[in-house]
TrEMBL record:
<dbReference type="GO" id="GO:0008168">
    <property type="term" value="F:methyltransferase activity"/>
</dbReference>
<dbReference type="Pfam" id="PF02527">
    <property type="entry name" value="GidB"/>
</dbReference>
<feature type="binding site">
    <location>
        <position position="84"/>
    </location>
    <ligand>
        <name>S-adenosyl-L-methionine</name>
    </ligand>
</feature>
<comment type="function">
    <text>Specifically methylates the N7 position of guanine in position 527 of 16S rRNA.</text>
</comment>
<feature type="binding site">
    <location>
        <position position="143"/>
    </location>
    <ligand>
        <name>S-adenosyl-L-methionine</name>
    </ligand>
</feature>
<keyword id="KW-0963">Cytoplasm</keyword>
<comment type="similarity">
    <text>Belongs to the methyltransferase superfamily. RNA methyltransferase RsmG family.</text>
</comment>
<feature type="binding site">
    <location>
        <position position="79"/>
    </location>
    <ligand>
        <name>S-adenosyl-L-methionine</name>
    </ligand>
</feature>
<protein>
    <recommendedName>
        <fullName>Ribosomal RNA small subunit methyltransferase G</fullName>
        <ecNumber>2.1.1.170</ecNumber>
    </recommendedName>
</protein>
<keyword id="KW-0489">Methyltransferase</keyword>
<keyword id="KW-0949">S-adenosyl-L-methionine</keyword>
<keyword id="KW-0808">Transferase</keyword>
<dbReference type="GO" id="GO:0032259">
    <property type="term" value="P:methylation"/>
</dbReference>
<dbReference type="InterPro" id="IPR029063">
    <property type="entry name" value="SAM-dependent_MTases_sf"/>
</dbReference>
<dbReference type="InterPro" id="IPR003682">
    <property type="entry name" value="rRNA_ssu_MeTfrase_G"/>
</dbReference>
<keyword id="KW-0698">rRNA processing</keyword>
<feature type="binding site">
    <location>
        <begin position="130"/>
        <end position="131"/>
    </location>
    <ligand>
        <name>S-adenosyl-L-methionine</name>
    </ligand>
</feature>
Length: 214
């Protein structure tokens, strides 16, 4: 079995376990993203994960596990790093406008190359601090790049009035939940099962607190 076939088998198995079905062209593009990330990672050290097979599990499947909870026409992925979860989410939903944000020039260069080589016309790359990002978004994703309090303090202005904030976490710390700004509230916490990943994963879903909610 070739390396490409091995990666496809792992991805196909994981997608099946997640209950996700995508066209062959979408799966091909997800694998192309892993290939590109692996190639760039050898020089630019974008992720601590070195093995492409582990990238499928720890990056692709981890990102795609939140697909059922993503909603809206616009999405911003804050602290995107190597594009996680923003690039996989953009690949599987080309109708959604995705903005990937990172302040690291090395990482945004990779993100621009990923968008160009994978022909992701729905992706916009911003090299920016979160505080300086303009506009608002229906959905915001953030993959454990800061505490919930810091995420919302820096980027809370980016969430549309009826938008959804999806914070990807390992274990959920009650003290961290208690520290979120008063303008926001936890809607629900989803326990995620990432195929092949023997670690706790949770998705904290937040929204703006409405006047009726106090």
């Amino acid at each position: 079995m070739s390396e490409r076939d091995r990666l496809r088998a792992r991805l196909d198995s994981g997608l099946s376990a997640l209950g996700l079905v995508f066209e062959v062209a979408v799966v091909d593009r997800l694998l192309e993203y892993v290939t590109l990330l692996s190639r760039w990672n050898a020089t630019y050290n974008l992720t601590a994960v070195r093995d492409p097979g582990e990238m499928v599990t720890r990056h692709l499947l981890d990102s795609l596990a939140i697909v059922p909870h993503v909603r809206g026409a616009t999405l911003a992925d804050l602290g995107s790093g190597a594009g996680l979860p923003g690039i996989p989410l953009a690949i599987v939903a080309p109708e959604r406008a995705v903005t990937v944000v990172d302040s690291n020039g090395k990482k945004t260069r990779f993100l621009r190359e990923a968008a160009r080589s994978l022909k992701l016309e729905n992706v916009r790359v911003l090299e920016s601090r979160v505080e300086a990002v303009p506009g608002t978004f229906d959905c915001i994703t953030a993959r454990a790049f800061a505490t919930l309090a810091d995420m919302l303090t820096w980027g809370g202005h980016l969430l549309a009035a009826d938008g959804t904030w999806l914070a990807m976490k390992g274990k959920v710390d009650p003290e961290e939940l208690a520290g979120i700004p008063a303008a926001f509230e936890v809607r629900t916490i989803h326990a995620l099962q990432v195929p092949g990943l023997d670690a706790e994963r949770h998705l904290v879903e937040l929204r703006r607190r409405t006047a009726a909610a106090g």
